[in-house]
Design a protein that fits this description.
Blueprint lengths: L2 H17 L2 H22 L3 E5 L2 E4 H31 L2 H6 L5 H31 L6 H25 L9 H15 L12 H9 L1 H14 L5 H21 L7
Antiparallel strand pairs: 1-2
Helix pairs in contact: 1-5, 2-3, 3-5, 3-6, 3-7, 3-9, 5-6, 6-9, 6-10, 9-10
């Protein structure tokens, strides 16, 4: 069996395993829409400034923010927690003892995570367009949006693999993953829009990490702000760093 066929089979297996855990699959798809409804209902439909020259309806802002959150959740949270559980239960160790190459197994997880991310973004965008009249990216804006989507998905997948290097066991996985991502979601303007009055330290902290840059790249396609390729470079740099950390420290065997 060639590598392409093995990858196809692995992606099918990962997809079946994903849908055979209906509670996890349900909340992966439900959380972005649930947060979208909650935030737009609580914070109203007034306009906010996304650039010095452009303002958009708050509901439109949250459509793209929840699309970004959906990608992060599907790629970072799901991969990190899932791998920690499989490592603790011995699944990863047994998998490495099978004929399937390690690279095919990892690539299968990546492809499936990106596949789920694209579906989540499409659902969130369609929901936002239908109920909040959010404009959808087209033409060159759509291409740049897809570039950021793919680069961001790959980066957060790599970060999901990297964070497992500091997770001691499966029980600690949800706490460590949420502690590492939730503060940055607030600081980066995913859950609460950063206004011009935001503290300077908060803006600088957000600029260090990839979430803010990923969100800005996604916003460019939806709300018409200028697309900055430096955002793509920063996100990709974090992905490369996470890949190197994973390559060096990722463990297939239980930590304890």
């Amino acid at each position: 069996m060639n590598s392409v066929a093995m990858l196809q089979n692995q992606v099918k297996y990962v997809n079946k395993a994903f849908w055979r855990n209906p509670a996890s699959a349900f909340f992966t798809f439900a959380f972005p829409l649930m947060f979208l409804v909650i935030f737009t209902s609580l914070l109203g439909h007034h306009s906010i400034s996304v650039s010095p020259t452009r303002s958009v309806d708050l509901s439109t802002y949250y459509v793209v923010s929840m699309a970004a959150y959906a990608v992060i959740s599907a790629c970072y949270n799901n991969i990190a927690v899932g791998l920690a559980i499989q490592r603790d239960s011995g699944v990863l160790k047994r998998t490495r003892g099978t004929p399937i190459p390690s690279g095919i197994y990892i690539l299968g997880r990546l492809v499936h995570a990106i596949f789920v991310s694209v579906i989540l973004v499409a659902i969130t965008a369609a929901y936002g367009s239908l109920f909040y009249h959010a404009s959808l990216p087209t033409g060159w804006s759509l291409i740049k949006f897809l570039v950021m989507l793919v680069v961001g998905a790959l980066t957060f997948c790599a970060l999901g693999f990297a964070i497992t290097c500091v997770i001691p066991n499966a029980d600690a996985a949800p706490a460590i993953v949420n502690a590492s991502i939730l503060p940055l979601l607030f600081l980066s303007g995913i859950f609460i829009a950063l206004s011009s009055n935001a503290p300077t330290w908060m803006v600088w902290v957000a600029r260090i990490f990839p979430i803010r840059h990923f969100a800005l790249g996604m916003q460019a396609g939806f709300v018409g702000t200028s697309f900055n390729w430096m955002d793509v470079i920063v996100v990709a740099a974090w992905g490369l760093g996470a890949f190197l950390v994973s390559y060096r420290f990722f463990s297939w065997e239980p930590r304890n």
